[in-house]
Design a protein that fits this description.
Length: 189
């Protein structure tokens, strides 16, 4: 049975925190691959700041140096808001011999009771929680806890830095930084 980690998110933009979490969970749980699944529109947020196309291109650039990292565009192809339960059902149908581990930050662990069809979802997938500053990994839902180096980086912080013309060097992969500059993303419009 192939063991696959799933890291979903807006990735607006993708940053080193995403990559560190993915690699640390992959190694700790001995997973074959991590599938990055960018959402078209997350159900718990307003629309993303950047188009799905640009977010996908940045993510491709961010993960291209790790053969264990794959891009899966299932939620982008669906368009609109995506719920994890729908994505997991499709993945389990397409890959019945795979075991999936859904990686979430501690901020999302606290939000689990609000997830769409959470009681059904926990029967279909194994959640993996990683620590995040300011949050606790406490839930009554089944959860594997993986300790990762804490990098207090968020896409929100990066967008703010970019709008304020502050450096993001060494916080995002060089290829992502270059793509952001070339496309003029996150500039104050």
């Amino acid at each position: 049975m192939k063991r696959i980690g799933i890291l979903g998110g807006t990735f607006d933009p993708p940053h080193l925190g995403h990559l560190v979490i993915a690699e640390e969970v992959r190694v700790a749980l001995e997973l074959e691959e991590i599938w990055f699944i960018p959402t078209y529109t997350p159900p718990h947020k307003n629309d993303s700041q950047t188009s799905a196309y640009h977010r996908m291109k940045m993510l491709e650039s961010a993960i291209d140096s790790n053969n264990s990292f794959k891009l899966n565009t299932i939620e982008m192809e669906r368009l609109g808001k995506s719920y994890t339960i729908d994505t997991v059902k499709v993945l389990r149908s397409e890959f019945p011999d795979y075991k999936f581990y859904f990686i979430i930050g501690a901020d999302m662990v606290e939000y689990l009771p609000n997830w769409n069809k959470i009681d059904e979802l926990v029967q279909l997938i194994q959640f993996v929680g990683v620590k995040r500053p300011g949050y606790k990994l406490e839930t009554h839902y089944p959860l594997i806890e993986v300790t990762v180096p804490i990098l207090d980086i968020s896409s929100t912080m990066l967008r703010r830095r970019l709008r304020n013309k502050e450096s993001i060097k060494y916080i995002v992969p060089d290829k992502v930084h270059r793509y952001i500059r070339e496309k003029g993303l996150y500039e104050d419009r």
